[in-house]
Structure formats: structure tokens, C-alpha cells
Amino acid sequence: MISKLTQKRMRIFKSNKRAYWALMLLICLLVFSLFAPLLAHDKPLVVSYKGQLYLPMFQFVSDTVFDGNLPTEADFKDTYTIHQIEQNGWMILPPIEWYYDTVDYFSAEPVPSAPSKRHWLGTDDQGRDVLARLIYAVRLGLIFGILLTVCSVIIGVLIGALQGYFGGYTDLLIGRFLEIWGSLPQLFILIIVSSLITPGFWSILLILLLFSWTSLTGVVRAEFLRTRGLDYVKAARGLGLTDFQVMLKHILPNALVATITYVPFMLAGAIVSLSALDFLGLGLPVGTPSLGELIRQGKENLNAPWLGLTAFFTLTLLLSLLVFVGEGVRDAFDPHKKEKA
Asked: What is this structure's pTM?
């Protein structure tokens, strides 16, 4: 059963039309990006050839199946393969017939090429379809941001809870550590560490996690300090509950109220951090589709404005939606906020 307070918060959030529709659009973007291979790929969804069905996205289909000479995987951009399928069967292609790393070797224009019927948003400086890379970049950015935000929330809540609940030397030691850690030049440390290790999805995630959790610790600490002396907490201790049970069942739910309002803004910060590292060339491996990489290509190819502008407006859209959602969540959890009549 949903409590009356939760129902009230949901109504307040829905009353903010901008935040509500921003959340719906974000969910749609996430869902569509998760199914990116079905939207943008250089392999057909289904192929029927001489009465046999094949699923090239999920199975290895040899070139010899289509009467080719080599036992390698079939190239569905090859004119001979296309002709054979047209003569002896049929195939269903994705809406965008390009994968994020597919190079268009048959393009009649020099790369980067401008938007056309063949490439709706043009190609980059390697001859790869920009729209396909953009779809996969949005998926990568959202997944990376969600993982980093979840990990940051877990660590931040845990450290803040220990600091606020036990107080004393625990609060003092953690507080001094956070002061020293927070005074370090984060950007320079991220650049140095990123240049020393082999870049990758998980390594970049761990690097950014070093600092991303600290912004939430103070909020959780303050909530635990405020709540630990209340009567119902003292009564829970008097009943024999352990410190862990008191923190988990009686204080943490109240601390999460303040935490939830930070989550959309932390997610926006995570996406910006990844994009910034990719833009500087210190992020994900070369060839990985990312918004920062597309923006960097736009800077390096001023004669192809569609590269930078496409990625810039996409990043702006994502961040704007997250800010709108954050404002709606903040209003929904504001105890002084009243429902609109």
C-alpha cells in the first residue's frame, strides 16, 4: 500500500507539468537507447534465404550461406550479398542501417559528409554514421550516469550515516578526511589518473567515484545528527535494537528524503564528467561512441558543424530534462509545498 504522504508527493510532482513530462521523456530515451541494436545496426533483424531463417544480430552467419567463397561472417553491406538475398529471399533491416562503428566505404562524398538521405545526420571524420553513434552515446551516457549515481549514493549515505549517528571521534576523523579530500584539485587528479591507466568503462567509473560521493555525505550526516536524539530513536534503543537496526529502520528513511532530491542533479553531473573526460581525450577508448567524443570531433572539424552541434544539443537536452526532474522532485519532498487546487 502506498502511504498518503507518498501519494501527496506524487500528486505534487505530477502537478509540475514540466518535471513530469521531462521524466517521461527521459524514460523513453532510456528505453529506446537500451534497444539501440534494434534501431541502429549494420546487420538485418531477420534474413530469409532459400527457405531458412537467420538472425544475424544474435548468431554467426557465414558468407558461404549466401553462396560466397569465404567462411567469414557475411557482410550485409556487400552488394553481392544484398543481391543474393534479394534473389533468393528477403530481409528486415533496422530503421538506421548503420552500427556505431560501421565505416561507409561506398560513400560518394568525402568525410565528414553532410546530412543526407543515406546518413540523416551526416558522418564523422571516420565515415561513421553520426545518428547511430549518437543513439549509442546516449545509451552509454545514461547507463554510466545511473551506475555512478547509484554507487555514489550508496557510499555517501553509508559514510554520512556513520559520521552523523556515532558522532564523536568518528565524526571528527571522517570530517577532517573529507576536508582534506575535498580540497584536492579533483579535475587535475582525474586527468593524471586517467592518463596513467588504460581507459575503460569500469576504470573511468571508479576514477569518478573517488570524488562523486562526497557531495552527499554532508546532507546525510546532518539528517542523522538531527534525528538521532529524537524520542522515537531513543525508544528504539531502549527496546534493545542494535545500532544497525536503528539506523536502517528509523533514521535512514528520513535521511533518504533529502538524498532523493539530490539524485537527478548527481546524475547530470556524472554525464557531464564523462563527457568532459571524453572531450579531453582522457575518457573511454578511441572509437567508443560518446557525446564528449562527438563534441571533440566538432571542434577538430569546424567545416562539419553538424558534428559538434548535434552532440551539444543532445547533451543540453539530457541535462535540461534532469534539471527539470530535479526541480519537480525537490518540490515534491518540500514539507512546506502545498498541492495546487
From this structure: 0.88
Question: Do strands 89-92 and 46-49 pair parallel, antiparallel, or not at all (unpaired)?
Answer: antiparallel
Domain count along the chain: 2
Hey, what's the cell of 180?
582534506
Show the domain range for 305: 4-35+132-332
* Residue 52: φ, ψ to 5°: -105, 140
Pair (88, 221) in one structural domain: no
Longest dimension (CA), the chain: 82
Q: Give the confidence band of 295 by pLDDT, cuts at 50, 70, 90.
A: very high
Please tell me what DSSP assigns to residue 249.
I
Measured in degrees and rounded to the nearest 5, phi and psi for residue 120 equal: -60, -35
Residue with cell 549466401: 66
Pair (29, 68) in one structural domain: no
Cell digits of residue 310: 548535434
Q: What is the pLDDT of residues 157-192, one digit of tens each?
A: 999 888 888 888 888 999 889 888 888 887 777 777
Q: Same structural domain for residues 31 and 49? A: no
- 102 within domain boundaries: no
